[in-house]
């Protein structure tokens, strides 16, 4: 009978990174369940110390043993001629005895004591072992690094507290501790130590709250939570591009600086190189020339509030006209959709709203989509498919990070994502939503509800969280609450726009079918008091080969917020900009 052999575990080779000649910790810690194949391999690893412990060893004293006969009675050497100095030195003990007889202390002759009784040097400090948990950002887990000062000298000035950067060469061995890890690195050579100032290092304290970490956006990526968020964000970024490339979309980069109002509702940041902008006589804005200055845009209908003598200077400005940071890129995407079919863009969008909302910052990243030969129904289906794809991608490609998020942040996050992937989403019109909310008797809404007003966050929350308990797509909004470019429905009161509302999150995707009829678009622009000349290029798309087209905008930062179970968008944006605060 043949003996059963244990199945062989294939261990991938530990290939160093191409541009830094070190092995990522992820390839060591997550390569396989059985790490025995890694034992004995020599690697170079680098990272930052998450925790450190020094264990001092007691000096080893050799046991005394009686001398051998040869050691006790060495053979007498042959006669040797001694010099005068050697003869005098051999008689020093005799001279000391004579001095003591006459009652004179040898301390009276310090020169003799110093010369013939040197003070012994203090013994060297006992060797220590340093146990370091280091992390390089590639994985949730950290690698135990063991440094034996008897083998690898560590200078007294090179203390290794939390935050220290270390690059080390060593051998992977079976862990000597009884913790969760089964592997550790025994250091043979230290290649680099980046010291840290423990008194001023923000992460010296354990478990610093997220709101405190916002004051250190340049340091907080070293925390386990923010590092995990960043890896999820990176994976979500890749997933978004993957979805659209798989469905034949082209990626188009739209401008950040624009001269048009993309929505007509949001406050905008104005871009200028002028030293004087909207200031009265004698006033001087001490602003560095040729820099971008962001000021809240004053709508044309509010120019009367400027007062006498106040005149914006735009002719001598860099662009020669009023320019803003873009609120939306969908209008620019339309021009490419009307030539290439399906296109998308991915980039930052800016709103100068002094809001205290935990789901809004001044600069947010947005995925924007535009599809030619497409109507509202097509856009809603694409948005739902995209959302489900992103949720599934994160669950499939971030198992370790999602496990951490479930343990530390939201225990239900994985279940909720799986649920939203497997179900169909409820679709209701704005009118149906209002009818449902009016019938609510067990809850009082702060904002009085009537047809024609925007649905507030609490209205949307009730529909998604309490009434349907699933994502809800609300469409056909009143024309007064949506941008001018949205297609007017046949009833003349509503427009072809939609919002996707997610439980415990709110609106994540907004979309619409754009107005392809020139006369209808011109009438809507007149209602918003928009300059015909300024939007001439946009109207040209309706004059030359117009086509029905639709699209949507997906709040990328809000998607990261959803995937991580957090509640404040400032914790998932690498460098958040809010009113009165823009660190780094």
TrEMBL record:
The keyword ATP-binding applies. SUPFAM superfamilies: Class II aaRS and biotin synthetases. It is an enzyme of class 6 (ligase). CDD domains: EcAsnRS_like_N. It catalyses: tRNA(Asn) + L-asparagine + ATP = L-asparaginyl-tRNA(Asn) + AMP + diphosphate + H(+). One of its GO terms (cellular component) is mitochondrion. Residues 231-574 form the Aminoacyl-transfer RNA synthetases class-II family profile domain. Pfam families: tRNA-synt_2. Its EC number is 6.1.1.22. InterPro entries: Aa-tRNA-synt_II (IPR004364), aa-tRNA-synth_II (IPR006195), aa-tRNA-synth_II/BPL/LPL (IPR045864), Asn-tRNA-ligase (IPR004522). Keywords: Aminoacyl-tRNA synthetase, ATP-binding, Ligase, Nucleotide-binding, Protein biosynthesis. GO terms for biological process: asparaginyl-tRNA aminoacylation. One of its GO terms (molecular function) is ATP binding. PANTHER family: ASPARAGINE--TRNA LIGASE, CYTOPLASMIC 2, ASPARTYL/LYSYL-TRNA SYNTHETASE. Belongs to the class-II aminoacyl-tRNA synthetase family. This is asparagine--tRNA ligase. It comes from Gossypium anomalum. The lineage of its organism: Eukaryota, Viridiplantae, Streptophyta, Embryophyta, Tracheophyta.
